[in-house]
Amino acid sequence: MGKGCITVTKYFLFLFNLLFFIFGALIMGFGLWVLFDNQSFIAVLQESSDTVKVASYILIGVGSLSMAMGFFGCIGAIYEIRCLLGLYFTCLLLILIAQVTAGVLIYFQREPLKYEMSNIIKGMIINYTGQNRTTEHTWDFIQRTMKCCGWTGPGNWSENLSIKNSSKNLYPCSCRNESLSGTDIQEVGLCEHMSTDLPVYESGCMTSVEKWLLDNCGVILGMCVGVAVVELLGMILSMCLCKSVVQEDYTKVPKY
User: Does 52 have pLDDT greater than 60?
Assistant: First the structure.
């Protein structure tokens, strides 16, 4: 391969590694968001399930590794270091295999994850008191913004321990339908109504939450596909550059 082709290959490999670094940063940022977010549905799952926490740590790890590989790939391309290019190719191959494996596992675990999510929400509704500032207030925020009540419907709240053990007509304040007449609107906790005809939303949050999760999964899936494409191109270019780099003639090195 001529010097012109080597230079072009180095240039493109540098650009692809820069993109790889950026995509890695995005994946790591998404993992950090999942880990520390306390204003969305993720916070509800995270409080009750270790699966979400493990997934966030995996995303952070993969993102960090991708950033490191992008950096070393740039160094290997600029200085034409054969061993570093070979190591870069091997690590990219391992990362790509891990990504495909994780995607297949998640695909076949969709129903168990959906079942686990449903149990987490129903358990939180049963034990709801309005005092927990993480999961309960996050769920209140979801019901207010999505204009829904309960998981499958407002009937889920009939299993709440505080409501069952009270002689008053209580309902979650965040379920309050503003278009209906009733008591003053509150954001969290349990509210009292004079009659059994409660002024709450009639639809459950399951459909809205699943749509929200699918939308966010689409974002992370798009990032992962982008990273995979960059990985494949980086592997091809790294091998082309590695082959074109002139090997030193080690037979000329003095032997001792």
Answer: yes
User: How large is the average pLDDT for residues 83-100?
Assistant: 78
Which residues are 176's β-sheet partners? 200
The helix (run of H) or strand (run of E) holding residue 7 is helix 3-36
Average pLDDT of span 8-18: 72
Task: Give CA–CA dist 87/91, Å, rounded.
Answer: 6
Higher pLDDT, residue 247 or 83: 83
The answer to whether 66 and 227 have CB atoms below 8 angstroms apart is: yes
Alpha-carbon radius of gyration of the chain: 27
User: In the block, which residue shows the tokens 């109504």?
Assistant: 193
pLDDT of residue 250: 38
Judged by DSSP in three states, 176 sits in strand
Delimit the domains of the chain by residue range: 130-204
Q: Cα–Cα distance between 108 and 101 in angstroms, integer?
A: 11
Q: For residue 195, what is the enclosing H or E element?
A: none
